[in-house]
Amino acid sequence: MFKNPFDYRNRLSRGCTCGQHTSQGEHDAALRAQSADLAKNTEATYENLVAETVMRQIFPVDAHRRAFLQKLGASTAAAALSSFFPLATATEVFAQAGSLEKKDLKVGFIPITCATPIIMAAPLGFYSKHGLNVEVNKAAGWAVIRDKTINKEYDAAHMLSPMPLAITMGVGATAIPYTMPAVENINGQAITLAMKHKDKRDPKQWKGFKLAVPFDYSMHNYLLRYYLAENGIDPDTDVQIRAVPPPEMVANLRADNIDGFLAPDPVNQRAVYDGVGFIHMLSKQIWDRHPCCGFAASQEFVKTNPNSYAALLKAIIDATAYATKAENRKEIAEAIAPANYLNQPVTVVEQVLTGTFADGLGNVVKAADRIDFDPFPYESFAVWILSQMKRWGQIKGDVDYQKIAKQVYLATDTTKFMKEVGLTPPASTTKTFSIMGKTFDPTKPDDYIASFAIKRT
Amino acid sequence: MSSNLTLRASVLSFVIFALFIAAWHIATRQTASVAAMDPEYAKLMGLTATTGKSAMPGPFDVAAKIWEHLKNPFYDRGPNDKGLGIQLAFSIGRVMLGYCIAVCVAIPTGFVIGMSPLMSKALNPFIQVMKPISPLAWMPLALYTIKDSSISAIFVIFICSLWPMMINTAFGVAAVRKEWLNVARTLEVRPLRKAFTVILPAAAPTILTGMRISIGIAWLVIVAAEMLVGGTGIGYFVWNEWNNLSIVNVIISILVIGLVGMLLDQALARVARLVTYPD
């Protein structure tokens, strides 16, 4: 009946802990109502919180603040304050950060210029602009970046654009649903040959060559095979194509282990810079505006962290748009050349990005679109890649091209976010294109495969 | 006489070193001739292509770079660019962790194998199969199952340093002199006490030899493992500099890896001397 007065846990006085209500129950109810009110009006809360923080910074002594407000009146003071401090913007940034599921993200990359948007977004502040704290981590190779992303050590990663397709289908890896919401770069690759082959500019003379590509599931592999096959060289029997990680390519070319490679930059330019090779042709001469690398994340990450994913993707799209402008390329080259990122001489990176480069044969070539950036992942790109996977026997049987393309290349998301950052996305998620004069119709991939003389089906 | 020998040996060491440096310097001096180049074009090219500078750095390039690293060994310019000192600390930390776990597993297991002929015969086929596997062959399996690259690297260190220690412990325990065990038995010493006061001291030198072999292997493997997984460590440093074709830094890393390996080995050799006793 009565509480034990000698028990320290019991309260003898009536009323609540704050003393303003008659009972503890009433006190709790009032608190609940207050917090519900707060939740209803989060925007206002953020505004007040931000304003309070700002006021506290300006008036460290509270008496001064009160004196100031008494003299001016609250609304005048607020107006005066916002005239030199952008309260609205600060509130917006704060509110945005508050709704992110995960702010500290890790993104993996391979040190090549294809990763430019992913890398430059860190030193040039595109991630922090979208409220994220992203650490970009260099990975040793494509297999490692794939495993580390699957293991969730990286939240998202730079991948070759065929890789998310291969991972989703379980080709060369365990099948895990993957997505590629943005293409990193278009063009930007080249065929480089050793100096001793200076006079063998016709691929028909390349029988017996040992050529390198960065990975089996890469645009490089498919483009090189396409180029060779169009010139009547069977890529499986007439030459040897091996997968060599980009950093090892120049060393192998110097050591005469390989005759040439179709590789991402800065590897090609580095071979020229060190006098071991020359640029035979740029990849844009095979297929102008072809995709190369992409920005990939697992479907699980996209679904469990929709806001972080949106912010991350917007940061990437933003950075890509910045990288598209030719006048920014020099600044970007300087930002991504240091040891923390590409670890290459600035002039090499600059030659790649500006498109004014030495070709290794004594000429200065100007090709402004040697590398370009366009985030839009056309589903037709995925269909073409799948058709080549099938053509070279990497996948067998019937393939539901359109379904896989739609599932992995999230073109609708890209459209939405491109609009949000103020860009104009293309009207359609598919398009036809022509490669070495041969038109590709994304609606008839099987007919396309059948039309080639050299294939493995 | 012996001090005289030491003196002569150090003079000889110095002469060999000087000859080596001189030969290196001469071999890497600028030799290749280059064709004249358009200055506009030359600006875009590296020194090897424009001036015929040898792609291999000379000893003075390396010395200058070493000085640069020594001046600032602990800088941290982001997740992918840290000083040589920090990278070494990461590598040594990984090796120590994997190695200590291996010690905790290998020595008790080795004891059991050495004391029981039955266990020895039963486990022998497994050990014989596992021992010759290159530690790096475990790497893909570890990455796939453990799902964490840094733990995988530690696991690889663990698995490679396990076998020499286990085999040496088993051998040392099995080879304790029969007379000593018989004396212990006549004195009715309990098994645990026998293990710690008779067998352990008797087998300690052999166990430490095993530990010395293991730390050597562990240090060999960490470099390769870090080159594979990347991120941090001296192995990553080598890979990152290879990426930039910076042979100077690769040579420096080789030098540093050798020095640290020697220090680790010497430390265990000193411990071994402490537990060795004259018969």
What brief labels describe this structure?
heterodimer; A: 457 residues; alpha/beta; D-Maltodextrin-Binding Protein, domain 2; five-stranded mixed beta sheet; 20 helices; 16 strands; 15% strand; elongated; B: 279 residues; mainly alpha; MetI-like fold; 0% strand
Please provide a written account of the structure:
The complex is a heterodimer of chains A (457) and B (279). Chain A has helices at residues 24-40, 42-58, 62-72, 74-84, 87-98, 116-120, 126-129, 142-150, 162-169, 219-230, 246-254, 267-273, 299-304, 306-324, 329-336, 346-354, 379-391, 401-408, 411-420, 445-450; strands spanning 104-109, 133-138, 156-160, 178-183, 186-187, 189-194, 210-213, 240-243, 260-264, 277-282, 293-298, 356-358, 364-366, 371-372, 433-435, 438-440. With 457 residues, chain A is an alpha/beta fold. Chain A has 2 domains: 41-98, no CATH class; 100-457, Periplasmic binding protein-like II (D-Maltodextrin-Binding Protein, domain 2). Chain B is an all-alpha fold. Chain B has a domain at 84-275: MetI-like fold, CATH 1.10.3720.10. Chain B is 77% helix and 0% strand. Chain B has 12 helices and no strands. Chain B has helices spanning 2-27, 39-42, 47-51, 59-71, 84-115, 117-130, 138-146, 149-174, 178-186, 191-229, 234-243, 247-275. Chain B is elongated. The relative contact order of chain B is 0.10. The model of chain B has no long low-confidence stretch (mean pLDDT 85). At the A-B interface, strand 2, helix 8, helix 11 and helix 12 of A face helix 10 and helix 11 of B.
